[in-house]
Design goal:
With about 270 residues, the protein is an alpha+beta fold. About 35% of the residues lie in helices and about 25% in strands.
Length: about 270
């Protein structure tokens, strides 16, 4: 692809305009109220995603081995996915994204890989929960500082007679630097109520929390053969004025899984703001 897209020898799209292609696609999806197609050529979020260790290793040596153009030319970006297929090179590249300098065969890299494999065996999937993986890497590298501690929570869902919907109430107790806060909030469901209680408890300590909002919530069953005792995987997507991120929680209890994903989401968002 040359610096200008040509049609019948006439320049019709400059390199500067071509760099706005992904932005234009996202804008059209928003106006049309469509969910973006992550696998759409050139502009999709996964159009330049790499997962297998062999592919990532090749990309690190020469991007042209698996990418026919530079993603930046169409306003997109390369994504390195982490999974059980990841190798040392994947960890090194992800670490660079988060500002860490790792060596491919270092003990720290092996530690992150081992933790990743252990969690994926339990049902975690970090391809669409990179914020949770960022926190995992910080913990493994000793760069993690806990912003709050959960002392306990209680969620009550009450259904009364008539046509009225159920009432959900969450009671939450957290500690920040030894100072405890007990809050109660109602919501449209357990996650909404927990989110409200958490905000009441933490906004006093972290005013920047007001700029973080929950935008999506998904629940998936991990081991369907277990029926109602199966593990569930909860994905939470949040956003602020500068971008969005996703986190994950896994448990046999959907409320516990939701709390894990929600707590990671708030913590990551506060770290971004700081």
């Amino acid at each position: 692809m040359s610096d200008a897209t040509l049609k019948l020898g006439i320049p019709c799209l400059s390199a500067e305009d071509l760099e706005k292609l992904s932005e234009a696609s996202a804008f059209i999806d928003e106006i049309a109220n469509l969910a973006p197609n992550e696998h759409q050529p050139f502009v999709g979020r996964s159009a330049f995603a790499h997962k297998a260790g062999l592919h990532v290793d090749a990309i690190a040596k020469n991007p042209a081995t698996f990418e026919h153009i530079d993603p930046a030319r169409v306003g997109n970006a390369r994504r390195i996915l982490v999974s059980e297929l990841s190798g040392g090179t994947s960890m090194v590249l992800k670490a660079k994204e988060y500002g860490f300098d790792l060596a491919k065969n270092s003990p720290e890299t092996r530690q992150v890989l081992e933790e990743l494999l252990r969690l994926e065996h339990e049902g975690y999937v970090f391809e669409d929960a990179e914020a949770s993986f960022a926190l995992l890497m910080k913990k493994a590298l000793g760069e993690y500082r806990k912003l709050f501690d959960l002392i306990g929570f209680r969620v009550i869902v009450e259904k009364r007679g008539g046509d009225a919907g159920p009432i959900t109430e969450a009671t939450l107790k957290v500690a920040v630097d030894g100072a405890e806060m007990l809050t109660v909030a109602e919501g449209e469901g357990p996650v909404h109520a927990l989110d409200g209680a958490m905000r009441k408890a933490l906004e006093h300590f972290y005013p920047e929390l007001s700029g973080i909002r929950l935008t999506d919530f998904k629940v998936r069953v991990v081991n369907v053969k277990e029926g109602t005792a199966a593990k569930v995987r909860v994905l939470v997507e949040s956003a602020d004025d500068s971008g969005s991120w996703s986190t994950i929680g896994v448990s046999e209890n959907v409320i516990e899984a939701s709390w894990q994903a929600l707590a990671d989401s708030i913590e990551y968002g506060l770290l971004r703001a700081r």
